[in-house]
């Protein structure tokens, strides 16, 4: 099964999407926009068409029809770049994407089951093109040539193996490109559809119209193989887009940033990779004294991801904290650090891996909103002193944390869940520590004697003690030597749950 997307208004789409998204719908209805090529009108907007401007008209003729007409020169380089953006989005659904003039061809035979059928792929493909600001005519058929003709003729045609031949036979003969020089001859013999052309003798077709037309027919109906040049994603992702207007607030940047993220996630899908760090560069209009012409936003992920919605959410949180010093006119997105990752398996029940990914996304969102220093995790350090054996570090995946600590296989004596900020001195009665009632020592002693290297030496014997009157399990110790802030005796250091 093949899917084709034909973009008949590509030059117009590129001209309109230079304006902010909120204004585009109104501008399409009110602005007479014309795309010119070689001093002639080539594409016209709906409003320009209502003013009487038609393709083929001269520029001066267009001005006479409407004083408000906006003439824009066709930019072929920008069209090729826009098709590349569309191809990167199409890579979400299949690695077999081929670029065509003003369109794409996708072989989705191997992707139908994964995405739930051809209709589901077409729907998601269309929504992506709409976000990219591109108008698309999309069709599906069993061969590449047939689907390309169908997409050029009408939008939304999905023909299966049993019916596509009848649908193609009803198409106009003008869709066969090699027959364009023979339009008058075909008109003279009343050959208007592809079905009528197929009924002509094959030998006479070759003699009168050339072999190319017959080859296209054979490819359309599967009699001859179709060779495609597949689009290959670049080795490194770094895309830059120009904004249509000067942007003063970060809220208006999110739509353009999402366009870049759509391309990046397609690149990651094609490369079987996920991103762990990416950066967004905001290029400003002017360079103020002592200010950088570019604002850089670095986004680090706790776990590698290529989920578009998740990355968009992180981008939104980071943009909300940026204060623009001057207007933004261009944006650049680059994938800085990648990690190889296969496609995820569909799970009936959540696994440990999926739950860890959900936790990682929560941590990333909190970090993006509150700042990198506001969200931390507790890590074990190589120090036996209870006050210094843990530190607060940046949140990272549990696998990485275990590997870095080097203490994953270490077993410790019982430790309390609540450690006091400072030990509390205890009184002794009949040579026993007292805390509301006499304490009975259950486990111990555990001797900790260390700290000589930083002048905070301790020498303690720790016990697990029971207060039978209040049913409390305590962690107490007996200081063996005098320190600057600690006298020999008994101290309470924590509570067990």
TrEMBL record:
Pfam families: IMS. Residues 21-145 form the UmuC domain. Keywords: DNA damage. Coiled coil: none annotated. PANTHER family: BLR3025 PROTEIN, BLR3025 PROTEIN-RELATED. This is DNA polymerase Y family protein. It comes from Noviherbaspirillum album.
